[in-house]
Specification:
Blueprint (H helix, E strand, L loop, with lengths): L1 H15 L1 H26 L3 E5 L8 H6 L5 E8 L3 E2 L3 H10 L4 E7 L5 H12 L9 E4 L9 H15 L4 E5 H8 L9 E4 L12 E8 L8 E6 L5 H4 L3
Parallel strand pairs: 1-2, 2-4, 4-5, 5-6, 6-7, 7-8
Antiparallel strand pairs: 1-9, 2-3, 8-9
Helix pairs in contact: 5-6
Length: 237
């Protein structure tokens, strides 16, 4: 009890100090000014996730009901020979619970565009896709991506789905390759993990690779749609 009274007296002394009051007032004012921005950043941008075999078995009903998520992208294939082991399950279950879903092709410059396209088509065959396909470009050192082969793959996907695929890349790869005028009409999924907003244009931002989501035991990449974009306009149907 006496310890509590001493603590209260100490607080009163501090509050009577004009310098302390000024600092507290400034801190409170800064916090109040920041709160609307923080709320806006959390509520105005539709949220999504990117899932793959790295998340193992996902409880999709819980994902849909236990989180404020607006869309999901599913890793489908890598190159011309690899299919994500959870691709079919994730596409089926995400669609079953009513989540808008799209699929991701991880580009490999060592394989032909046709081979990679065929592998992707085989993986998503029979599945309903709401969102345009994504081509994930991870440059090899020294950042060679075989632009001609990539462009051919982008064209094949556009012909098949009637919309341009999204290009997924980190900021370094974007600045080196995709900031060019020839890619200006493509939507970009920028990978920039962390709290800071991307320095480049983007339609979707992967803001972290360590999001925690109800229904998924492992960490999952978190996605945010740019506040100026509408998810309905991004959908294919």
């Amino acid at each position: 009890m006496y310890g509590g009274l001493f603590h209260l007296n100490k607080i009163n002394i501090m509050m009577n100090n004009s310098n302390t009051r000024s600092r507290w007032f400034a801190a409170a004012l800064s916090l109040m000014m920041a709160l609307p921005f923080m709320a806006s950043a959390q509520t105005t941008a539709p949220l999504g996730i990117l899932v793959s075999q790295d998340q193992n078995t996902i409880d999709w009903p819980t994902v849909n009901e236990g989180n404020d998520l607006d869309f999901v992208y599913v890793m489908a294939t890598t190159g011309a020979a690899i299919t994500d082991t959870r691709c079919a399950f994730n596409l089926t279950q995400a669609h079953k619970v009513g989540m808008p879903v799209g699929a991701v092709l991880r580009y490999d410059r060592h394989y032909s565009a046709q081979g990679q396209f065929d592998n992707f088509q085989a993986a998503v065959k029979g599945h309903h896709l709401d969102l345009p396909p994504v081509v994930y470009v991870v440059p090899d050192s020294p950042f060679d991506i075989n632009v001609k082969r990539l462009d051919m793959l982008l064209q094949l996907l556009e012909q098949a789905y009637g919309v341009k695929p999204l290009i997924m890349a980190n900021q370094q790869a974007y600045l080196k390759y995709f900031s060019l005028e020839r890619y200006a009409s493509y939507h970009v999924l920028i990978v920039s993990n962390g709290l800071r907003f991307p320095d480049t244009r983007y339609t979707i931002w992967q803001y972290t690779d360590k999001e925690k989501v109800a229904g998924i035991l492992e960490y999952v990449p978190g996605l945010k749609l740019h506040p100026t974009y509408n998810l309905k306009k991004l959908k294919m149907n």
